Amino acid sequence: MTRSLRIDYPNAWHHVMNRARRGANLFRDKADYQQFIDLLQETADLFNVDMAAFCLMPTHCHLMAQTPDANLSRYL
């Protein structure tokens, strides 16, 4: 089954969810979580994405992001 087209327009809010395959862990330890957070901030600054909130769990993560430039695909 194909996914729906991503709707993106200036200042849109997006709920982004990413999950590992077959229940594998995305993060092994605190250092992995911290590296992910650092990369989120670095790339959000680079692509002008406002990261309002995130929730990181061992097997998946949720992000709430606003895209002033309608560029979520480039950010991800």
Strand content: 25-35%
Number of helices, counting only DSSP H or I runs of 4 residues or more = 2
CATH domain class name: Alpha Beta
Determine the CATH superfamily. Transposase IS200-like
Helix content: 25-40%
Low-confidence stretches: none
* Total of domains: 1
The main sheet comes to:
3 strands, antiparallel
**Shape descriptor:** globular
Please describe what this structure looks like:
The chain has helices spanning 30-47, 72-75, and strands spanning 12-19, 50-56, 60-67. With 76 residues, it is of the alpha+beta class. The protein has one domain (12-75): Transposase IS200-like (Alpha-Beta Plaits). The chain has a three-stranded antiparallel sheet, with helices on one face. It starts with 11 loop residues before the first strand and ends with a helix. The relative contact order is 0.30.
